[in-house]
Amino acid sequence: MRSILLSFSILIASVTFGYAQRTVTGTITSSDDATSVPGVNILLKGTATGTVTDIDGNYSISVPNDGGVLIVSFVGFDSQEIEIGNQSIIDVTMVVNATQLSEVVVVGYTATTQKKLVSAVSIVDKKRIENIPVVDINQIIQGRAAGVRTTAPSGQPGAQQNIRIRGTGSITGSSNPLYVVDGVIVESGDVSHNTTTMDILSNLNPGDIENMTILKDASATALYGARAANGVILITTKQGKSGETKITAKIAYGSTSPLIGNLKMMDGQQAWDYERQVLANSGFDQATIDAVRPASLLDATTNWVDEAFRTGHTKNFELQASGGNEKTQFYISGGAFAQDGTLIGSSFKRYTTRMNLKHSVSEKLDFGTNFNLSYTDQLNANSGATFSSPLLGAFVNTPLQSKINPDTGELYTGLEPDFSIFTADNFLYSVPRNPSVNNTLRTLAKVYATYHFTDKIGLTQNVGLDFISMKESSFLDPTTGDGSEYNGAIVNDYSENITLTSQTLVNFEVPIGDNHIIDGVAGFEYQQNNRDYFLAFGKGLATGQLQTLQSTAEPVQVDGSRSAYRFISYLGQANYNYKEKYFLSASIRYDASSRFGTGKQWAPFWSLAGGWRFHDEAFMSGVGWISDGKLRINYGTSGNAAIGDYGSLGLYSFNAAYNGIPGSQPNQIANPNLSWEQSRSLDIGLDLGFIENRIFASMDYYRRNSDNLLLNVPVSRTTGFSTALKNIGEMQNSGFELTLTTVNFDGAFRWSTDFNVAWNKNKIVSLPGGEDILNGPQISREGIPIQSFYVQKWKGVNPADGTPLWAKGGFDASGNYTGEGETTTGVYGQADRYIVGNATPKFTGGLNNAMSYKGITFSFFFIFVHGNKVSNESRSFIESDGQRFGWNYLVAAAEGTWQNPGDVAERPQPLLGGNNSANAFSTRYLEDGSFVRLRNVTLGYSLPKNILGKSGIKNVYLYATGQNLWVTTKYSGFDPEMDQNGREFFRYPVGKSYTFGVDITF
Amino acid sequence: MKKILYKLSATTIAVLFTITSCTDQLEQNDPQALSTTEALGTFDGLVTALHGAYDGLQRLSWYGRDFLVIPEVGADNVYISIDNSNRFLQNWNYQLNSSNTQTALWTDAYATILMVNNIIEQIQVVDINSSDQAEASLVEGEAYAIRALAHFDLVRAFAQPYTVNPSSLGVAVVIAPLDPGAEPARATVAEVYAQIDADLAKAAGLLDNSQGPYRITKDAVAAMQARVALYKGDYATAKLKADEVINSGSYPLMDAADVTDAWTSDGFSEEIFTLKFLASESRGPDNLGSIYVPSPGYGDIRPSTDWRKLMDADLDGVADDGDVRLDWIRLYIDGQWYQHKFDGADGVPGLTSPKILRASEMYLIAAEAALETSGDPVPYLNTLRAARGASDLISADLSVIMDERSRELAFEGHRAFDLFRRGLSATRNQFVDAPGTAVSGPDVIPPNDNQRVYPIPQVELDVNQNMVQNPGYEING
What we know:
The structure holds 2 protein chains of 2 kinds. Chain A is built from 12 helices and 52 strands.
């Protein structure tokens, strides 16, 4: 990219000579990476005297004896004026411009510049990606790009991340975006079989990434057609630059502590007191209470939360080398990353290598490869839905249970009759003995060759390979709760997931006269994916020390499966511009997929876009304070094909058996009419720059209608099925996004601010037959947003008897809620369900402040999410009014409980076995999920050049960074950063981390 | 020359990839599954599908566990300890609601009905070799019998007993594969029983006794007819069918010596239909026995003091008259009694193959039917009691017969249904020795309690406009 800028600027650089009395020399470096910048314009102010820096960034200029002012300018950097005085050596550090109109933006099959861009894209560049101590690049996006929300169901290192671009676009199909690495569509999401959670993109080393471009509207996504309805994330990796070879070593070390947030569990004394109270409330006499909960229980208590969590460590080592000459450029890197989870028994290690190589055979032909090999080793914590999970155990195990068996002085295994926890599992014993491991080897490779018929027309052939080889293994030690049933068990499975892509693309640029340019791309793409999987499960182990299948006494299960999909696509895009002032762009893609019914496989997608850089109009010439202005509008379609591979077929599966003889059972209703989800979207954008673009604002209004929604429509279970997949229903997302970039101070002390905020409004336009679709506590209903909570309304405690109350009635004749006539009921089964909020935030955004002074940089970054509801389903277990007796309880569970008639209490009287279903799900457990979080604070320091001297070291950058240091929220669970569906059930919390690192460039 | 070569190779690559990607690549078949017509297009396919239907009966919600546990937890044979895994509490304390209760039973029973309906429909269409005709008759008969069993279990669970009100709403009767948009309404209880009777009659005509006890035989159908008639209060038929099975002589009662451990294996003489669970089908802690047997099971559900008193009035831990059925429970070192009838099988804790129909039930049905048809129940009861080491009775009224059913069929999923079909309350006089060790629940569940009938699942009501909820569970709005 820089090389394009370089040649561009050399062309336009004006070199002039003037009279001079003395010479000033110096070196121009970039604040970005401390490397020298060639081609920089140096102009003596008020004269025609000027020069350009050479390839090493050095310059020499003649100036008057009495000095003067040098103007230093270069595309992409802020211009600087420097008083010469009596200096003879002036070294200048150039600061990267806040907005770079001529910066190249990769928009998929083509690239353009910010100036010519007519669609809504967000760019997250390497400055935001590097040195952030997270596993997965997706985790970096949150708050960095307007309208893009990243969430994760788990804080497990390597856990799957869910990204929503401009809201949720599908009800049952995937709402995750399409991922493209260096131009090739790659597998994304969780492709594991028996791993709790694994994001295949965690295999990418964030240090190798140059930037990520997020395509948000149809003009940008239409070229990706059938799979782009939820937006596209383009990941571009680093390329070498011709010039001196640069070697950078990066070392970082950090520690992470768990964020338990507002969640406080009872200690032994509190639980003992509470349980005795529950028994007393339930009418037991003192002798019984003393017998059931004797004081001796307090002798050996356990803080299970402290036992389950720990401080984890993060280590990162990377070596990057880049350079080359005019013919060949390379970027080579190797990295090793290790992170311990904050929960026992969870960790993630990653080893990566990358080679990006490009060679020009001649002016006509060049070729290259991007080759990435990575290996990950993930140790998984079981999700909170399993008994042996430390996540569940930490919060539900009674503190009155000692972890140590007094008979042996060792940890309880959980199987002892006197171990009183219902899970019959002591996670402290079982977790270290029962590892669940995922090992993934991924090869992500692309080779390409481009033949330039002329400098305006080129033919490119790309071949991409994405080969994921995944080994998963679970071990159950015979002495643990889960393992005892099998007398020890081993499950090993292996899968391969291979995607081959071929793209044949013609890029062209046709100037017509001086002022008209048409450019574009036409191409063909073929992609095939094959997946194979097998599993072996054996049981009966003599000892837990032997952990291979050979040591199992008998086989329990073998299993295997295979699946495949194919996509065939024709695509084309043409862009026209007149004087870089008026822009028109049209795209089309004709896509086919094997996933849909015969005759429904092909579908066209298209877009039209226009742009007007009105700042270049004559009428704007007098408005000096406005430094840029562009209006963009576009409309187009894209699709969503993210369903199962064989969704259209009526199927019998053969995984049943009776008495050792195989059986078959129906598992899917046929729907030969199954086809794409289609989305139509409109985007209107305005870009405005003020005061030499020191203030730059981008505003976008969008509206996206998704129809033909693929819905697993619930059917009467008397049919033998629960659901049937159909193309039915329509949904709309509309919203407004604002991105504001300001340079508050410029010069030696520089302070810039990036702010973005996005409002999204989701509405389900139509559903099959207008009927509601219920999914647990959530409902899909026409006219309201997806993931609306539809639950019983909690009306507090009946002061008369301490029993719970819920709302009933308040609907008019047509069933609409008016509130009139709303009463209460003490019977859960008679309470009505109401629409009471939504899991989708009203607005989200981020605020980053970056400051630099000489070699010191400081930045702090907030993210915020507002207006979403969280269903805290964990709390119905640990604040259950006695229903879950013998578990542990929230400290709050004992507070404000009803005691005597007339008490206006917050919580019902806790009774053994529960108080009239008081903990059945209701708005009692629905909470406000809004939060503001200080996501990142980084302090960096580049050692001054004079200290480095002639050591051969070009730059040393030291930094300290903190993640998730502070949060403000009303949410009572541990972490308000919730998965998309807003449902909490003993998730793995995120951590707070401190990392120290050094980057050394040779 | 060089230039031309480059152009040529670039074009070749492009063309090559265009050719390999022809449109037939778009036709992909699932390698794990066959289309419905392929799967059921041959006689062998139908046999495989029948095994799929038996597998359907094994679901956790049904004969895998829940359907055998809930009628126990809902009555007086057992109680739930305060140290529990939170299972079956709503059935114990009668806090059922339409969102959380027995949705899976409804779903799984109808899924199995679809399996057998597909078989019944396809067997008329598929070409069957003459050598397979005899076996085809059995397959069809078993399909009808499974359909009857599914409807019978549904109507027992989700509707009023026939003996209480045959014209009240039963369940949807499904006798052919339904369109995905179907919204069938509930038939009356009497209509459901009429279909069950018709299917059983059909099955009896098609079956023989060649493949028991792990498959449904002609005798198993007779046993089912006896039980269905008993539930209908048609005692003449009940006695006729029960006698038919008893008098066949094929199912002598097992010896007292075998009784204690009979459920840790199977294939005993008195088994008429046993649903075989292999060790490889273990559900781990969700095996039927594991809800009763502690470590590594849950040990949540324990025999009630009421039940122990049926054989051990003084609660000294020894049967008053040598009744071996008291050995189904054991006293643990923690001072608690646990049920060990379903201790485990094939070395797998808690695994058991439910003996869904067995001869001892036929003696009990015959006794009850004899009582109601002016016959003498005592010989039937004493035959059974003798086989259990218990002393002879001199006379028997209904409560004596109900007690005998409670002893013999304990933990096998009969108790609540037996009480409610007879219009009796479930009375938990003393469910635990020491207070504080049981989850509290109602002491008496009267026969008119709405909650003795399960709610129609909310997921069904949400999509099926013709489905009506049972009394006491209605939700407005």
